[in-house]
Amino acid sequence: MLVRDLACSRVVRFSTLAVSAALASCTSKSADAPGAGSPSALALAERVFATTPPAGARPLAESKQSAKAGDRIVVSARIGGREQPFVDGRAVIVVADTALSMCNEREGDGCPTPWDYCCETPESIVANTATVIVADAAGTPLATSLRGVGGLEPGRAIVVAGTVSENAGGGLVIVAESIHVQGA
Length: 184
What we know:
Number of domains: 1
Largest sheet: 5 strands, mixed, barrel
Distance between the termini: 43 Å
Strand content: 15-25%
Structural class: alpha/beta
């Protein structure tokens, strides 16, 4: 029971970290920050999309083990790790290591939201997920959702190059400099 409680605590901390990153932009907008869903925020978000994957991609879980704040990393991942991996009105997404099997990849699993990895243990989800943000120059997540931008959808494989903002308590946060959407 103690192990399950600890795992749930880690999932709550990770979820809190993702939401905190999104909400931080609500309280610390710079004077030139675009408004929610504005065309300028969308244009800024679209600038990070690359037609070719950044070189040197490593599995997300492997990078997460050694990454420190300030490190530049390149990871391969899939959009997912929770039922709603996109934060409404903010350029924030949750991604999972590609080694995890989505629920629909398991024989007989009819999960309607396979990208949430609900078939995995909470410990596995925490160990294999990260938050990716597309931010302005001040580090504030842009005021636009990334869902659908550049082909981003739940379960889609991506390669992200960026700088580690935080890696503590099971929550890795990457500020994206480049995102390649595989198969887009």
